[in-house]
Amino acid sequence: MRKPSPKPWTAKYALRTDQDGRQLDLQSLHRVRERWVGRRTAVINQIRGMMLERGITVRKGRHYLEESLPGILEDPENTLSGAMRVLLAQLQLEMQYLQRQIEESDKLILRIASELEPCRRLVAIPGIGPVIATATTAATAAPAASFSLPMLTLLRIVALQTSFDGTTGFVAN
Questions:
Q1: What is the DSSP string of 21-80?
Q2: 73-124: pLDDT as tens digits
Q3: Distance, CA of 158 to CA of 143 (rounded, Å)
Q4: Which helix H or strand E contains 12, and what residues bound it?
Q5: Is the pTM of this model over 0.85?
Q6: Angle between helices 82-115 and 62-74 (to 10 degrees)
Q7: Rounded distance, CA 72 to CA 94, Å?
Q8: What is Dmax (Cα atoms) for the chain?
């Protein structure tokens, strides 16, 4: 009698260590935050488009829309129907919800950036904040002190310089 063979499509995965798990958690946090930011932008664009179709314009920028939308919804002089006012109010609520989610993720990112040594080193560099520092730490397995030259160039921390004789060096930005 033959034993059944293991299914060829069954994948075997190695268990993650604590370091890998923390790195995956940080990557997941950034992916979710990025999705929330994209959804908020889509809602803002949809609100602007609906209002523009009815002849109502708002200055570019999320803050200007957030400031002017309550007044627009209450203004009886504009061309918005009752149904459109309700729809815009619901989109406003969705925009506010997404903003709160983004703010909560930013607080978590700020806390993580202050706890991790590689993040603290990156934040000390002018122009790099907690979001970039944690995203970079999550994307690289190496500690911040051992970043390779191509990684630093990618981050625009240093610039590569090629001499006429073909040698390559780097210059701090």
A1: HHHHHHHHHHHHHHHHHHHHHHHHHHHHHHHHHTT----SSHHHHHHHHHHHHH-TTSS-
A2: 999 898 899 999 999 999 999 999 999 999 999 999 999 999 999 899 999 9
A3: 17
A4: none
A5: no
A6: 150
A7: 17
A8: 85
